[in-house]
Write a structure and sequence with these properties.
The chain is mainly α. Helices cover about 65% and strands about 0% of the residues. It contains two helices and no strands. It is flat and about 55 Å long.
Length: about 70
């Protein structure tokens, strides 16, 4: 548990900035949250698809490791 406690002072600034993000005042009710999440889920899905594609092309994702074909 101590490593987490050691991180808290370092993360305080970032937590404050996150809490002040302009998206929060625009979420006034459950319907607003639903609309936000409908869009956000696709943004995350798109990012993760790009990330996994890069991972597959640039790193080893299979066992045993073999060098990529030249």
């Amino acid at each position: 548990m101590q490593p987490v406690l050691d991180l808290q002072p370092t993360l305080t600034h970032y937590r404050q900035r996150l809490a002040q993000h302009p998206v929060y005042p625009s979420l006034n009710n459950l319907a607003d949250l639903h609309v936000f999440m409908q869009h956000h889920v696709f943004a995350v899905w798109d990012f993760m698809s790009l990330l996994k594609s890069l991972q597959q092309h640039l790193t080893c994702t299979q066992v045993p490791w073999l060098p990529p074909p030249q």
